Amino acid sequence: MSYISSHYHIVFRTYRSELSIPEEHERDLYAYIYGVARNLQCQIHRIGGMPDHIHIFASLPATLSLSSFVQQIKANSSRWLKSNSHFPSFRGWGHEYAGISYNLRDRDMIVGYIMRQKEHHHRVSFAEEYRAFLVENEISIDELYFLHDD
To answer: What share of the chain has pLDDT > 70, as a percent?
Structure first.
C-alpha cells in the first residue's frame, strides 16, 4: 500500500489578463470547476479570484499529475465559459500557471488567502501578486514569457 498526500495552490489567469470573469457570475464558474475536479476524484478546498485570474487549493489523487489536473480544468472550463452567455468576453485562459505544493496543515492559511482575494487586490495587481508568489517559492521567472500569451 502506498500513502500519498498531494495538495496544491494553483493560480492561472485569463488570456492576456482580460477582465472576463464577471463577479456576479464567478460562483457559477467555481461550481463548474468543482464538478470537473470531483469527476477527476480531486478535492477542492477553496476556489476564488478576480475577473482576470483564479486561485484553487486542491488535493489530487496519486493517479493524477498536477499538469494533467490543470489541463483538464482549463480545457473543460474554457469550453463551458465560451458557451455561457454570462461570460461574453471570455476568450480563453493564459498559457502559464503556477502550482505550489503545500502540507495540508497549511490549508487554513491558503484558504484564508484565497478568501481575501478581493480585499488583497485593492492594494496589489495580479502581476505583482503572481511575481511575488513565484519569487517566494523560489521559482525563477523568464521575463520573455512572464504573463505573455502571444
So the answer is: 100
